[in-house]
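Researcher: Sequence of SusC/RagA family TonB-linked outer membrane protein follows. Predict its structure.
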Amino acid sequence: MKKIYALLILALGCMSYSYAQGTVSGDVFSDLEKTPVPGVSVYIKGEPKGAVTTDFDGNFKIKVQQNEGILVFSYVGFKTKEVSYSGTQKLTVSLTEEVSTLNEVVVVGYGSQKRSDVTGAISSVKSEEFNKGVVANAGQLIQGKVAGVNVTAASGEPGASQDIIIRGVGSLRSGTTPLYVVDGFALDNSNNGVASNPLNFINPQDIESIDVLKDASAAAIYGARGGNGVIVITTKKGSKGQTKINLSMTTGFSTLANKVDVFSADEFRKQVAAVNGSLKDGGANTDWQDELTRTGVSQNVNLSMSGGTDKSTYAASVGIDNQEGIYRKSDLKRYSGRLNLNQKALNDKFNVAFNMTATKLENLRPDTRTIVGNMLTMNPTDAISIDGQPNVNLSNDVLNPLISERIYSDETNNNRILANIAPSYEFIKGLTYKFNLGVDYSMTERDIQVLPYTSATNTTISTLNTIMTTNNNILYENTLTYNFNVKAHVFTVLAGHSYQKVQVNEKNYNFKGFPNNGVEPKNQIEAATELTTKSSSATENELQSFFGRVNYGYENKYLLTATMRADGSTKFGSNNKYGYFPSVALGWNITKEDFLKDSEIVNNLKLRASWGQTGVQEVPSKQTKTSYTESNSGYDTYPLDASTTSVSDYPYGSIYTRLANPNLQWEVSTQTNIGLDFSLFNNRLSGTVDYFNKISDNIILEVAPVDPIQPAPKYWTNIPNMKIKNNGIEVALDYSSDKSKDFSYSIGGNISFTENKVENSPYKILTTGAAQGSGQTGATINGVLNGHPLGSFYMLDFTGIGTDGLNQFADTNPDGTIKDDDRIVAGSALPDYIYAFYLNFKYKSFDLGLNFNGTGGNKIYNHVAMTSFNRGQLANSFNTTDRASQYLNEATTNSNTVSTRYLEDGSFLRLNNATLGYNLSPKLIGLDNVLDNIRFSVTGQNLFLITKYSGYDPEINTGTSVGEIQSFGIDYFSYPKSRTISFGLNAAF
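Model: Prediction complete. Tokens:
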């Protein structure tokens, strides 16, 4: 009997074992199109490591350990689905497409919303949509990705500063930069001592999404700092589930993208003779553009980890980024670390979020202006070196650029920590209090030095300029949010208080006369023969704010957002400490109406309208307060002692350096927006159309006092009635094919037309760009004129060369003479339109993405050509382009006057980014138990450019200003753009 029981138990065990080793199979189809979906991940719930994927026909087979259980079906673009199985049954599973544009979460000020509930003009770019390749900062990630946002790099230098202009330029000051908010912390745009882009401290690979708040309704919650728009950066967070480890490595190679067509050595010899010049023939054939540039090698390694439980999540990363520019001694190195934590407690009512980024930045910068000038004007018959040593006998006694490179350096070291902790507690259902405490601390040391050098023809005195800057930004915020429903009425009410304090300290020393002993000047300050200048400064600004917002929705059809913020700033006068910034927006989800809700063509249709006001407070500190200094020159002093015979012995007197203006207040930007969002044909085609009208008034400017007896040369004030208007249209369209096919594609793009105009300016012209260099300094190139865009070029109209060999200009008065009154408005540096488009293709495991961008209607003033490419230069054995020989009768003594002769079309089309990728299944190489995915990619940046501009690149913005007014569209010997090819490997564990 016992043997029978034993046999029965063994048989049952075998049966159970056979069930344990069973197989579940089936087919997966799309819900709408009833077509197979390949590539779907299928796994037993709780065991994602054992996942299998559906084949081309949507079939799958998976081994199961239990007779019953739950399978999880997951695929990008479809809603994740869980299906129960029993035994070895065959399953038929249908997946529903995810309407991502409606369900995606958009980060707004002090919260987030579903895209379907948004009433303002907000554009979002997710990490998978970012520009790829060698990228130093957040601005490069979204160039060409958002309608109405013009991202222009100041130069091609690694990590160069950028102008990010949202919906046109609305301020005269150099403060056109938007407000950046990183994980809820508002950055300050004040000086932190780093000459390159201040956003370089954020590792681009740590960023999950970037949301651009374009209209006043979206940005008004940031009040006095939202006038130039707001860019919200969200870093990657952890999520519950399996631990994820990601390793990425990239190596890039950068070369000079485009050359300026200067004369070769043979052409140069002929051209100098043709103008009867003095040829200094060194007997060589040197391409200085090749000799003074290099192939820059960039390397990036990034390791990240994330994971968590229902109560606690984490995300951490470390990164090393080393970018070499196309010039020697042009490098950007970044060492970064990030830690994001989230912890829940007390039945999930208490939540603590912690975010920290720590960065060490090392930036080595070349003497760009000198190098560009040398590349374009050095005599091509001179040899750069002789017997392996720099040639010291160059034409015109020019210092060999190899020596200039060796003795010059500009090195910056920056350490920065950005951290905030935000505990929150839900008192009752829907009512949550949140406290946000953050700090942004930056410490920078910058040394600009020239080593001593002496030769038979050149002597360089050693100098050192050392600058130490600390920037401390502290933020305290309290917010109370209440979410509640009253039947079909849904409310979200926000009330908050914010206090932010920024302290900037700077010490600046200039030394000269260091010995030539092999020790760098920065390491032997005590050896300097002279401390030429020294200065220090300290500023402290505070901003206290009270704000509130109400979001209301009825049946998800009718939406209302109302916002109010009051900002009090120490930057402004005692009579105007607080400014008030209201906004209101309406939304109508038309597809929720009965006449459209069952439409098979229109999947989403939403109408938006908004009005609101924001501000700009980007003025220097302390401008509302009187400032004095001491002087014993001119009428500032007189003798108190009758025996004094020399003015130098007179006592010092106190004089004004700045007048007080207690009435100074914010610039105000008032914006109206009407927009339409739509999705058609099962969400294959989606897009947005927006019309905006933005008027900036209360314009802040530094002007001379009206009083003829001027106690101070200038003071800051608001210009009455002066307005800067921007209005335009933005369009964005995207189309995606069926993603379930082996081959799929998506195409799309955006274009924005903006009209910019200045009205009621009391000045004939405010210069925004002026000429530089011997005999040119101060001559107006562009400026602010009534009835014209900002950055309008105002100059003489060049008509040719006269019989005397000199310039001829149009007499536009006409009065028979050529004077300043004959100048004309000859176009603007601001584009009439900006555009971008992309093409994405996917075939099985391969993918290809192409991104293009461009501008139209803008002009560029070629200052390089005006300074260097003239007949006089060529006659003196300096190289030029064929501009110098364009007019055969031009005199070598003809002046290079500011005129339309050097004004060029700045329109362009660029293949900005192209990436070819391949996703290798770890199963193919037997590593499926170790790796989740392996991706190889090759990316090209700035692969081709179509433009009529004759300089290095039409995308120039040197970041200069005249009288605190920003310059646009002038090529001041800008660092050229590079062409980069990079190779990437990404492994997910």
